[in-house]
Here is the input.
Amino acid sequence: MYKDKTAVITGGVSGIGKEISVQFAAAGANIAIVSIVPAPEGLISELEGYGVKAKVYLGDVSSYDDTAAIIKEIQKDFGTIDYLINNAGITKDGLIMRMSEENFDDVIHVNLKGTFNMTKHISAIMLRQKSGRIVSIASVVGIFGNAGQANYAASKAGIIGLTKSVSKELGSRGITVNAIAPGFIATAMTDVLDDAVKEKMVERLSIKRLGSPADIAATALFLCSDGAGYITGQVIGVDGGLSL
Ligand SMILES: NC(=O)c1ccc[n+]([C@@H]2O[C@H](COP(=O)([O-])OP(=O)(O)OC[C@H]3O[C@@H](n4cnc5c(N)ncnc54)[C@H](O)[C@@H]3O)[C@@H](O)[C@H]2O)c1
Here is the structure.
């Protein structure tokens, strides 16, 4: 069902995004990655090894103009866009008393404005074709908050509000819009924490391990499947029980 479809994945060259690129390619979808950094050596040939087309478009998701131009290029190269996975994200943590205006703005611009930019430009294409799936990577922190992450939590809560609103606008045209709220996922973003902190995190979980990028990618793939056509406006927790 994914064959000959095109998935646009932001930040799809590392961590969770890379695994999303791999799982969608393995399922038969063509892959267009929008990334601020080049793909690591071997990624494009790994994706093409699944018999699909794959290309990286260098650009900044927080730029309205960059994203508009890139999406035009993707449409020219791939013909259609069927799935959008808004995965690009950054953190610039700090307690509110110490958080600079710049660190607040940067995180909101990449995480929330980036999701807006991509969703706005690509939903115009999906509206014309009367089909499409949009999945945005939020976070449990966007639901519960987290000390030291006011900017990040606000950006992820914003993504949840955007997802629910846009799902109401696009549902009648055959487009579903959902968010995934990962818990603690083992990537470069969480690698910086020391082992004692990680152990403490795992103690709180029902499933006694950190999540993996594959856990998130499998959920994104499911939300783009034919079987998920009646799921929209939802925030799917993939967090090993953290939010219970
Ligand atoms: N790792 C976790 O525990 C965790 C938990 C909850 C949510 N998330 C979310 O999952 C997503 C992926 O995170 P990850 O852990 O794989 O981290 P990561 O740093 O490996 O991935 C983020 C990707 O976004 C790209 N990116 C950053 N700024 C960009 C910009 N301006 N334009 C285009 N691309 C840009 C980066 O180059 C990178 O490829 C993020 O949205 C993150 O907030 C991660």
